[in-house]
Design a protein that fits this description.
This protein is an alpha/beta fold. It is 27% helix and 38% strand. Strand 4, helix 1 and strand 5 form a beta-alpha-beta unit. It starts with a strand and ends in a 7-residue tail after the last helix. This is Anti-sigma factor antagonist.
């Protein structure tokens, strides 16, 4: 289900939910979301304008089923400005998600945008980034504030 764009008080929001079958629905605890519902959103992205920047909040799982939707949601807002992707709410980051992060970085560079990723203390995200070396390829931040305030690379 895709909703957006929606204008609210001069702030641009884009919300995208990707619904996937809950493969754990038969688990004793009800599965991934605990609802038993066969279609539970596993990835949500919400974009908001913050001055000249766009902040994209991501929650859920970035895996083979959702990586393309994640990549598209972020690259849709790349237009030569700062984009900060907040990954603190990500519950799973698979190899397809790592590839999506690198793809986002590549598209940002090609479009003249700057993209930064806020990981906070989320080990689910930090660990695969560190193990694979992808962390060295991305601008990573612990908090949103510094990611928004730091000057763009090459800025005077």
């Amino acid at each position: 289900m895709v909703q957006g764009p929606v204008k609210q008080s001069a702030v641009f929001f884009l919300v995208q939910e990707v619904a996937m079958p809950d493969v754990c629905a038969d688990a004793p605890d009800g599965g991934g979301a605990g609802t038993g519902d066969p279609f539970v959103p596993h990835l949500t992205t919400a974009a908001e304008a913050r001055g000249d920047a766009v902040v994209v909040h991501v929650t859920g799982e970035i895996d083979a089923e959702t990586a393309a939707e994640f990549r598209d949601a972020v690259t849709r807002v790349l237009d030569g400005r700062l984009v900060v992707v907040v990954l603190i709410g990500v519950a799973f980051l698979g190899s397809a998600g790592l590839a999506a992060l690198l793809g986002i970085r590549d598209r940002a560079v090609a479009s003249g945008a700057v993209v930064r990723f806020v990981v906070g203390g989320n080990r689910v995200v930090i660990r695969p980034l560190a193990i694979t070396g992808v962390a060295r390829e991305l601008e990573l931040y612990d908090e949103l504030g510094p990611a928004l305030r730091d000057p763009a690379p090459g800025a005077a």
